[in-house]
Amino acid sequence: xxxxxxxxxxxxxxxxxxxxxxxxxxxxxxxxxxxxxxxxxxxxxxxxxxxxxxxxxxxxxxxxxxxxxxxxxxxxxxxxxxxxxxxxxxxxxxxxxxxxxxxxxxxxxxxxxxxxxxxxxxx
Amino acid sequence: xxxxxxxxxxxxxxxxxxxxxxxxxxxxxxxxxxxxxxxxxxxxxxxxxxxxxxxxxxxxxxxxxxxxxxxxxxxxxxxxxxxxxxxxxxxxxxxxxxxxxxxxxxxx
Lengths: 123, 108
Known about the structure:
The complex is a heterodimer of chains A (123) and B (108).
Chain A: E1 3-7, E2 11-12, E3 18-25, E4 34-41, E5 48-54, E6 59-61, E7 69-74, E8 79-84, E9 93-101, E10 112-113, E11 117-121
Parallel strand pairs in A: 2-11
Antiparallel strand pairs in A: 1-3, 3-8, 4-5, 4-9, 5-6, 7-8, 9-10, 9-11
Chain B: E1 4-7, E2 10-13, E3 19-25, E4 34-39, E5 46-50, E6 54-55, E7 63-68, E8 71-76, E9 86-91, E10 98-99, E11 103-107
Parallel strand pairs in B: 2-11
Antiparallel strand pairs in B: 1-3, 3-8, 4-5, 4-9, 5-6, 7-8, 9-10, 9-11
């Protein structure tokens, strides 16, 4: 059974750097084809994909936020970390991590999600 | 970036009725890499459909997806009380992956 859980601060100040950790079980980021991504959702608004890291350390970022994002993995700890610099009140959102995978012939969307963590940006 | 436009914004229906949700892409979605998610208040999204028409594990067969290219549809054949929620489409064939703005299915 695959489970993911996000952790990090509930409140950050404008201009600060946000660090979120996704801790997972039931999957391994050393297995070919496996990826873990981050998606956010401002209150009452739609979902926005942020970043994704694959088993081979291939990293993908949303171009609109790329300059502010860094995604890394710690395979031994079963964790993926997302940092976002220069936080602003518009970054207030629930942040989710999620699993996806690719076989040799096709890729699949995010099929397992964490419960999400609400991050508020305010002074 | 592929922009996904969902319609209608809100669908007001009664239990037992059929729901038809639309998702239109600004350019062709490669390999029909189009997914549908259901999200209830306070919960994470739940994958319903992938590859435009394949049901995810454990999803009831009243949910079906169709379409290709730029036009996709999610159909719920007979609405159950637990189906009233917000539905999002997502394309995952081109980077960046993008989501539609959502369709809310509410009780009439």
